[in-house]
Structure formats: C-alpha cells, structure tokens
Amino acid sequence: MKTWLITGTSKGFGRVWAEAALERGDQVVATARNLDSIAPLTQAYPDTALALALDVTDQDAVLAAVRQAKERFGRIDVLINNAGYGLFGAVEEISPEQARAQFETNVFGALWVTQAVLPLMREQGSGHIIQISSIGGVNAFPYLGIYHASKWALEGFSQTLAQEVAGFGITVTLVEPGGYSTDWGTASADFAEPIDAYQPLREGLAKTRANSANGSGDPEATGPAMLELADMEQPPLRIFFGKGLNALIHGEYQKRLDEWDAHNALSERAHG
C-alpha cells in the first residue's frame, strides 16, 4: 500500500489519479482550493482518503497540509504536484499580475510542496516526486509563452532536484501530457486582454485547436498509466502521456541540433 499526496484533485487529471489510487487500496491525501469539491473522496473512502483545502501558493498552508498528512498516515510515498493552470496570450499581452500569478502556482507552488515533503521522504529513505509538466515543458507554441516559461522552469529545477535527492532513495519524474479532454484550455485557464494586432494569430490557433480536438486523449486512461509509473523501481526522469508526442519532440530537437551545428563555428570563435 502506498500513500499519495496529490495537489489539484478537484477535477481533471488530479481527480482521476486520486480515484485510481484509492480504488486499488492505496491511501491518498487529496488537496484542492475548494474542500467541497473533494469531499466525495472521503465519503467514498473514509479510511484511506484525507481531503484538505490547500492553496499551493500559501507556503504556511502547504507545511500544515504535509504535517496533517504525516499525522494521519505516517508517510508519503508518492507526491504529485498537479495543481496548475494555463495562461493564454501573446507575450506582449500578458499583464504583470498574470505573469506573476502563473509562476506563483505553476512554479513556486510546486516548489513549496516539494520542499515540504522532502524532509519526510529523506527520513523514510524513499519517495517518488512526480511533477506534472506538459509537452509545453519541452516545446513552445504561440500564445502560451508565459505558461511555457513556467513549465520550462519546473523542468529545470526538477532535473536538478533529481540529481540532488538520488542519494536519499528519492526519485523524480516529469510527466509531460499532450492534449486531453479536460477543461485546461477553457474554465481552468486565464486569458490576457487581447491586442488587435494579434487577432489573425488567435484565429489561426483557434482553427488548429479545433482541428486537433478530435485527437484529444482520454483522461481516464492516465489512471492506470500513473499507477504503473508510481510502481516502477527505476522510474524515468521524463515521460510523455499521450500519442504523437515522441515523434513531435524528435522533430523539434533535431531542428535545434541542426541549428546549433550550422552555427558552431561562430560559437567556437566566441570562446576566444
């Protein structure tokens, strides 16, 4: 039996993973900003589910939640930093408040929860930290620049973290989902105030998204996949969730290699 702490479990991926773990008999600390949204988990699994209201941007609340998790279950085997959202807008359109809020949740929220759980995992001599990144954590597309920046930051500190904690028996995995049938791009998102000059770009992107909507993944299918990932003795640092992503990133990385190679002479001249 594993004990999980999962942020952002009110709906979407977080809810699917919490239910999958509970259904197989694991213990789950499910958190969300709205406690009412996760109350059904404790009603259905009173002995193995603990529902806590949590805003991951509140560092004191994060520390308190981890203390409650330890008091109830004694350990945390799997942490899933899932709380986050998308911010849509051209880079020029994003307000300072929106940019800071995006990083507060997607980067600092994951950092605070990770820091709070690490002492317990080090004490245990084991643990698996699963950071929910995105295909947008390894590639970038128009109209999502600050969202991408937040996920690239998450990728960076998590790759460092994996090297720092390996000696304690703790592993780190970045899960990078593609497009799924959730409300990530609608009700759960934030949108910048539009500037007219970018209207043609918005219209083109809307058509692209509409054309690709039929190929969206089924969130329920990620439940068994997450359980399998959490059970691995040697989990990967990075893994995609969804079809077509591996080929997409191979093409993107080949373009980067080609570009670096093409200008390598200038790079080396810059060395002096």
From TrEMBL:
It comes from the Bacteria. SMART domains: PKS_KR. Keywords: Oxidoreductase. Gene3D superfamilies: NAD(P)-binding Rossmann-like Domain. It holds the Pfam family adh_short. Residues 2-178 form the Ketoreductase domain. Belongs to the short-chain dehydrogenases/reductases (SDR) family. This is SDR family oxidoreductase.
